[in-house]
Amino acid sequence: MLTWENLFGHAATKAYLKKNIVEEKFPHAVIFSGEEGVGKRLAAEICAAALLCENPIDGNPCGVCESCHLVSARSHPDFYIVEAEETKTSRNIKIGQIRNMQSEAALRPINSDRRVIIIDGAELMNKAAANCLLKTIEEPPSQTIFILLTASRASLLMTIRSRCRTINFDKLSNEQIRDALTAQGVEEQEAQRLAIIADGSFGRALKLKDSGGAQLREAALDTLEKISRKEFSNEDIFKAGAEMSDWSREKFAEFLTHLQKILRDICFLEVSEPHNFDLAPRLSQIKISERKIFLMIEAGAEFHKRLNSNANLRLLVEAYLMQIRKIHRSG
């Protein structure tokens, strides 16, 4: 059921959106800006349900009318979602998708007094798609509301940003994510670990829970500890390559991200609280010079890019591990 009670955190933002719905002052075009997984999509769908609801209650969809059921099932004729399409190397929104949306937006509402269109991942529109959308926002069809969701507002055309009201969705606190996870039955210590790794994103925390994200962070730290002690042999690297070759590219990218964050934590451990603050005692035992840390981070960024190529994953894993080991062993 789509209800504001199901959106964790964001109390002030929820109150603002509900007020605009109640007063019928919801903007014709709005940007929900914030990191992936902080609740933008859920908030947009709740707004759509409330705006299309036959009997909204204080800015909340009633949850029982036909419109509410149709929005929940994503089959409401006046509710339209544009999402990025996956390719082998990227995700993007193409001009054809925006043109299809425009055709829908031009039609008169069928079940409700208005239409609501969500564009999820608006920063992923190519230039042609973005310019096509701009024309629609400049001269919006009557009774149509556009909600653009983005994790990178700066990537949107300035002309689009200037014609939309922006509502920011901040990161959630570790405590909010921990409590939300424990409410779903996650053991408290594990929930605390996942909350730290998730970095303010409840959606990311859920993915980490399902994919073993805490274990992946442990594998990244264990790898770096062995390299720092010069215990990582060629045999270890080939063994790791064989094991990781069964991973998806997304999983290896996540492993790289954990290792990059751990390296940054080690570098700034003495001047600021580490991102992985629960690992601080172990991080303080890893002795790698600042120069070598920066070189390792650069190597990690380069291998992140190589993941978008068709290169063999096992060879990429082995090459990356050999590279950061070589950096550590260099003079």
Instruction: Compute the CA-based radius of gyration.
Output: 23 Å
Q: Return the domain count.
A: 3
Q: In percent, how helical is the residue content? A: 40-55%
Q: State mean pLDDT (0 to 100 scale).
A: 90
* Widest β-sheet, arrangement of strands: 2-5-6-1-7
Name the beta content range.
5-15%
For the termini, the CA-CA separation is 60 Å
Q: Tell me the number of strands.
A: 7
Oligomer: single chain
Which spans have pLDDT < 50 for at least 5 consecutive residues? none
Shape: elongated
- Helix and strand element order: HEHHEEEHEHEHEHHHHHHHHH
Query: In DSSP terms, counting alpha (H) and pi (I) runs of 4 or more, how many helices?
Result: 15
Question: In CATH terms, what is the fold-level topology of the largest domain?
Answer: Rossmann fold
Largest sheet: 5 strands, parallel
Which architecture of the largest domain would the CATH scheme give at its second level? 3-Layer(aba) Sandwich
- Under CATH, the homologous superfamily of the largest domain reads P-loop containing nucleotide triphosphate hydrolases
- Helix/strand/pairing category: alpha/beta
CATH class wording of the largest domain: Alpha Beta
